[in-house]
Design a protein that fits this description.
2 copies of one chain form a homodimer. Chain A is an alpha/beta fold and 256 residues long. Chain A has 12 helices and 7 strands. Bound molecules: adenosine-5'-triphosphate (2 copies) and magnesium ion (2 copies). One adenosine-5'-triphosphate sits at the interface of chains A and B.
Amino acid sequence: MVRVVAVANQKGGVGKTTTAVNVAASLAQGGERVLLVDMDPQANASSGLGIDPRRVASGTYEVLLEGVPIAHAFRRTAVPNLTVVPAGPDLAGAEIELVGREGRETLLRQALEAEKDRFGLVLIDCPPSLGLLTVNALVAAEGVLIPIQCEYYALEGVSQLLNALQRVKQGLNPELMVLGILLTMFDGRTNLALQVADQVKRAFRGRVLRHAVPRNVRLSEAPSHGLPIGLYDGRSRGAEIYAEVAKEVLVRARGA
Amino acid sequence: MVRVVAVANQKGGVGKTTTAVNVAASLAQGGERVLLVDMDPQANASSGLGIDPRRVASGTYEVLLEGVPIAHAFRRTAVPNLTVVPAGPDLAGAEIELVGREGRETLLRQALEAEKDRFGLVLIDCPPSLGLLTVNALVAAEGVLIPIQCEYYALEGVSQLLNALQRVKQGLNPELMVLGILLTMFDGRTNLALQVADQVKRAFRGRVLRHAVPRNVRLSEAPSHGLPIGLYDGRSRGAEIYAEVAKEVLVRARGA
Ligand SMILES: Nc1ncnc2c1ncn2[C@@H]1O[C@H](COP(=O)(O)OP(=O)(O)OP(=O)(O)O)[C@@H](O)[C@H]1O
Ligand SMILES: Nc1ncnc2c1ncn2[C@@H]1O[C@H](COP(=O)(O)OP(=O)(O)OP(=O)(O)O)[C@@H](O)[C@H]1O
Ligand SMILES: [Mg+2]
Ligand SMILES: [Mg+2]
């Protein structure tokens, strides 16, 4: 049983936030109590759910570095059952501040300890790096969901990510496992996408989620309205696919 | 006259590496002596030019943290006149190691000092963050080229980037200026792209480069062959546009 899932990949722009927001929202719409933690100083998951990061007084930074209980940072969203710990302006300075801190890799795990059992699933959106914010997420998580864009550079970075996961598993979090790999922005008309998808499936037998997320402009429009795809355009291809992806993530989490 | 240009944007996947590699290669093909420094632990600029990052003995890490003279890290590429300082495996640990270092923000500027005048232009590819690797690039640079994907999340991050540039300008590098903003992955058929492009042009009057880079699959295929677009498919739309972009970058750099 995996209750905490980090959505991670140091390659930029592969669909981490889009996946974290839409999987969290789809499960919440289906009645699951979900917590989404925004560990990225860009605060895209926060704004993608209608929260203005500039006006966040208690967010991820305050929870990690000022000892604010995580429940104080909980924010409701437009989606019933979906709670967010938003990223505020100070999170940009956290990486450097964390370096000198005692137990610097385990701060998020400790903060979540008191509250995680109140939720059916906790998702953590990670920044595009393997620094201390992502490490905190990997130490707090029991499983990792890895979005991979069907592009060459994205494929190249996977071994670096798996090495980092291995180091966290051997050091601070022996339970950490790869919950699944999600192919994103898949355009079946290009050879490149077909080749990358094929290589990923061969390399990760059994761990690649059944559905690849196609490129769908409604997915990139939804954040400008502060809404997940299910509320912005529930009948779009993006909404349908993320509903399927969300179900599979939950099945894998429950069965792990 | 701007001789050192950082290609920066903390938003992931906006086309920083694609721009750095193809602008550098296009100018080099035209006879300009160009140096490209890979400051990203993902080492995409290195592999995009045919260098295997795992086999790099002296690269950006060794130059910054082990005092190796930057000229020792120079690597030739398939493009005449284009020299690369590649990223090796150790660069992933640099951000944390830099925190405790004396003069930690100025290490790249110092390393480049001895060699920068041997080149007509120096380009620096930055990682998707505003940490110490990007700060080193911003302190070493005289101008910043900012690729912006025509998407909502990419637009949102611009003010965070401009604030960081301002802090570097007020602190360590008063000469730093925005050389230009490049609209990338522009798909004129979507409203979102048109809206974002319009907002960027209004916000950055005069600093948005004339050509927007359209989405072009040949651009994403080229890196898997370790070649810039000009050598992979010189007649593609991607090659034509990046040749125009490169020219404009050089004109702006010379005129600045
Ligand atoms: N399937 C899709 N179809 C169309 N656009 C998409 C899709 N998935 C994501 N996008 C858009 O692509 C961009 C990158 O996605 P996103 O921001 O979710 O990636 P990320 O991995 O979180 O990026 P970062 O590394 O900066 O955190 C965003 O503008 C998003 O709206
Ligand atoms: N104009 C374009 N048309 C099609 N694909 C593109 C274009 N520009 C970039 N790409 C592809 O999009 C992906 C993201 O681009 P790139 O890696 O250059 O962005 P980046 O900003 O350097 O990412 P990161 O933040 O991870 O460093 C890559 O797979 C690249 O090949
Ligand atoms: Mg993100
Ligand atoms: Mg890059």
